[in-house]
DNA sequence: TTAGGGTTAG
């Protein structure tokens, strides 16, 4: 054997040196002994040659060698060549070889059909099968049906094949039956699949596996798990395929115990070195968050394939350890394993997670250089998502528009990208654009992406329209859609609707609880927040870090210092949640707002982590409210050293100086902001009139009805002054004359929006305003008076909270 | 010589 193999190698070496078929032909003739397979044990020798075929290139060499030796006249040899070409993905040569065979046997036809299936050419496989049937040259056999069943495109085609199977009497074959079971499951006819399964006289493990996969394909994962348990009860051995199919089910059902039991089974039955099994174990442990276990399985693997590397990379990515994921990606490359689309998809998520713009661009470049990758929708969507999460929306938009094909997830990714970056108008525009595309139908993800945009804009009418649409398709009771609706109603000032919706949807996860608590929080109903929190605990729902953020923020806005501190402590002591910088920020806000500035400052100094801009920002805002210029200076110095590009800190500090008349300080702040090329964020307010949102900028006179608006504004100010309103000029930043100061205050954008709403909406109707910055104290006071004289309920949502004005007072009780 | 059921994703 060994000698013959060496001869085959020698021939191949010889062939490598030869430039043409004629040269090798001369060598063949020159050889005194002739070519081994011409004389002796022909079959063994050819098989040895075939065994050397590790690529399509070598197959071609061997093929040429066989042509010159005249061996390809044998159907056996030609059919083997078809198989070899197909195994190496060279369909063109498989087809060419098939075409040269004059009289084909069942092996030849079966091999060609399998070659088409293997290379994903489904319609060609069907045509080939039809040709075989119509030619009548040879009848199909039990080997013909499994591959063709795998690729049939409709249930009708599948049933036709089923009839043929029955007619030809191949239903006894377990391979054929498993393929039929799978075919029926694929088209959603799981009852027909089970009928076939039940009537099988003999079943092997693949028959059970086909049924298990059938249940999974038809969203009946519980039944799949039942089947596995039945197999174990009947002592039917679970094979690697069973294990690889059922482990994702355990992860999906959150059934960790079953997952562990399967792992024990794997070890006991010597399956722990099966690549498919290990890959599925890595994925299962990753989904349960047991990275250490996933890592151990990966480390013990004797052979790792691309899926193994992808799985460990994705395990770290899913558990938010992007750095380790990238380390494994490098390891994968060192081991000579080429990345595929799934590797790159995970990497894009890692890069986004790490906020690593530089590597994001590098990754995008890598994908662009392999142009075929961008043709893949999943790849394109992952890149759009990456740029959106990195906050580079221009790139996200560009990649989206350059994608040759887009699906609903592409649109959802773009819409949520805009929403999450605060670009609500862009999100709703993208949604409208999507609506005009006939080829996509909105799904759950679409509503979850667009509703936050309407919430952000305070566009109640638009949000209600979406509510109507989701009711029609029975999605309003979906936890995620329902939560977005609660958030939307909460943010648009309809707390009652939010609450009734909350009690309609499933409340087993923290998600809807967080939404309803936060809705009450922004309206200043902190006592209700705490009651809802108690109810949440009674219902056995575990709070998460978001729940505590909402609670702390609610306590902070209403001055419930003790309750806030209690929340901060139980979060750590009772629920083991480590405070994030956002929690620390809320605590500083809570103490600072209550005037406990020193306590807030000491709290920052006692922090176990480095305070960031949100923490110092909260202290600075509190200093503004309580007029502590000295501490404010310290906080603003810290802020500017952390984030010198944020104009808000300069504005706030200059505001503090202005408040105490330190105009030098104001100028210093202004010039240092200008020196860095920073411009004050222009304030704007929007109001929904009819189905349209009108936007007003401070001092803006470009609105078509600006004359009437200013006229109304002056009339209102005159009236409220008579009622006792006195402008508070401390909210004016500039060092100007008194009447000029009044002019500056009176042109704040929310006042323009309120004046416009008063002249454009029916009397008694509620006015809802959205402001991008915080409402100033003077506008707050002015609006209170306006709500009294106009007999209107005015709801102003600013960047921080809700102000609900009614009959001359505000829901926030003037707690600033 | 040819075949079925399987793991990772936006």
From TrEMBL:
SUPFAM superfamilies named in the record: TPR-like (SSF48452)
PROSITE patterns: PPR
Keyword Transmembrane helix: no
UniProt xrefs under Pfam families: DYW_deaminase, E_motif, PPR, PPR_2
Name listed for the protein in its UniProt record: Pentatricopeptide repeat-containing protein At4g33990
Placement of PPR repeats on the sequence: 105-139, 204-238, 274-304, 305-339, 407-437, 509-543
Keyword terms of this UniProt record: Repeat
InterPro entries according to UniProt: DYW_dom, E_motif, PPR_At4g14850-like_plant, PPR_rpt, TPR-like_helical_dom_sf
Leader sequence segment: none
Domain DYW: 724-816
Similarity remark: Belongs to the PPR family. PCMP-H subfamily.
Keyword Nucleotide-binding: no
């Amino acid at each position: 054997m060994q000698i013959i193999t060496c001869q085959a190698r020698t021939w191949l070496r010889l062939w490598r040196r030869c430039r043409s078929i004629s040269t090798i032909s001369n060598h063949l003739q020159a050889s005194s002994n002739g070519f081994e397979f011409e004389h002796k044990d022909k079959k063994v020798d050819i098989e040895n040659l075939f065994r050397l075929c590790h690529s399509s290139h070598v197959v071609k060499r061997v093929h040429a060698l066989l042509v010159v030796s005249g061996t390809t006249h044998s159907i056996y040899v030609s059919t083997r060549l078809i198989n070899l070409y197909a195994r190496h993905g060279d369909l063109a040569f498989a087809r060419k070889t098939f075409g040269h065979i004059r009289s084909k046997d069942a092996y030849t036809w079966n091999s060609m059909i399998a070659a088409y299936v293997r290379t994903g050419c489904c319609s060609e496989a069907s045509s080939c099968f039809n040709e075989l049937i119509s030619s009548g040259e040879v009848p199909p056999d039990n080997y013909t049906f499994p591959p063709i069943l795998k690729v049939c495109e409709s249930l009708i085609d599948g049933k036709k094949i089923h009839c043929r199977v029955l007619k030809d009497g191949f239903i006894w074959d377990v391979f054929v039956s498993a393929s039929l079971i799978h075919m029926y499951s694929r088209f959603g006819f799981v009852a027909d699949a089970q009928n076939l399964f039940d009537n099988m006289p003999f079943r092997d493990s693949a028959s059970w596996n086909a049924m298990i996969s059938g249940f999974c394909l038809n969203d009946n994962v519980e039944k799949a798990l039942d089947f596995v348990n039945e197999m174990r009860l009947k002592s039917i051995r679970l094979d690697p395929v069973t294990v690889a199919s059922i482990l994702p089910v355990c992860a999906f059902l959150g059934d960790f115990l079953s997952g562990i039991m399967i792992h024990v089974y794997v070890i006991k039955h010597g399956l722990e070195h099966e690549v498919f099994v290990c890959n599925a174990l890595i994925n299962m442990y990753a989904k349960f968050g047991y990275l250490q276990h996933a890592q151990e399985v990966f480390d013990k693997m004797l052979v790792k394939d691309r899926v193994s590397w992808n799985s460990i990379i994705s395990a770290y990515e899913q558990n938010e350890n992007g750095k380790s994921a990238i380390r494994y990606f490098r390891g994968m490359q060192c081991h000579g394993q080429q990345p595929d689309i799934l590797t790159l998809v995970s990497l894009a998520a890692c890069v986004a997670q790490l906020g690593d713009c530089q590597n994001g661009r590098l990754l995008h470049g890598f994908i662009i250089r392999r142009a075929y990758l961008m043709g893949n929708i999943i790849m394109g969507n992952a890149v759009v998502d990456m740029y959106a999460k990195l906050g580079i929306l221009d790139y996200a938009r560009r990649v989206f528009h350059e994608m040759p094909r887009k699906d609903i997830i592409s649109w959802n990714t773009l819409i949520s990208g805009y929403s999450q970056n605060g670009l609500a108008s862009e999100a709703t525009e993208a949604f409208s654009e999507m609506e005009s595309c006939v080829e996509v139908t909105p799904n759950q993800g679409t509503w979850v992406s667009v509703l936050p945009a309407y919430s952000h804009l305070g566009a109640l009418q638009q949000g209600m329209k979406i509510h109507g649409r989701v009711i029609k398709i029975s999605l309003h009771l979906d936890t995620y859609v329902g939560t977005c609706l609660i958030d939307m109603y909460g943010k648009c000032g309809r707390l009652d609707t939010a609450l009734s919706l909350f009690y309609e949807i499933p409340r087993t996860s923290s998600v809807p609880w967080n939404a309803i608590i936060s809705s009450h929080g922004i309206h200043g109903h902190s006592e209700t927040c705490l009651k809802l929190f108690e109810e949440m605990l009674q219902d056995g729902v575990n709070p998460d870090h978001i729940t505590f953020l909402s609670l702390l923020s609610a306590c902070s806005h209403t001055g419930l210092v003790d309750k806030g501190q209690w929340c901060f402590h139980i979060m750590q002591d009772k629920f083991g949640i480590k405070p994030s910088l956002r929690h620390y920020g809320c605590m500083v806000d809570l103490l600072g707002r209550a005037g406990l500035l020193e306590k807030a400052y000491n709290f920052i100094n006692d922090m176990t982590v480095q305070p960031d801009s949100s923490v110092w920002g909260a202290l600075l805002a509190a200093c503004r409210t309580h007029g502590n210029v000295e501490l404010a200076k310290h906080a603003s110095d810290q802020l500017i050293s952390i984030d010198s590009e944020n104009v808000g800190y300069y504005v706030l500090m200059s505001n503090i100086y202005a408040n105490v008349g330190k105009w030098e300080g104001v100028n210093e702040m202004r010039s240092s902001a200008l020196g860095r090329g920073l411009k004050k964020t222009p304030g704007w307010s929007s109001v929904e009139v009819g189905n349209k949102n009108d936007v007003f900028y401070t001092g803006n006179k470009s609105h078509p009805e600006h004359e009437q608006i200013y006229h109304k504004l002056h009339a209102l100010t005159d009236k409220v002054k008579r009622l006792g309103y006195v402008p508070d000029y401390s909210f004016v930043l500039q060092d100007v004359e008194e009447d000029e100061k009044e002019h500056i205050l009176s042109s704040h954008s929310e006042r323009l929006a309120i004046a416009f709403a008063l002249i454009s909406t029916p009397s008694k109707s509620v006015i809802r305003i959205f402001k991008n910055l915080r409402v100033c104290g003077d506008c707050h006071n002015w609006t209170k008076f306006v709500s009294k004289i106009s007999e209107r309920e005015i709801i102003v949502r600013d960047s921080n909270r809700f102000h609900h004005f009614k009959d001359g007072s505000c829901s926030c009780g003037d707690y600033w």
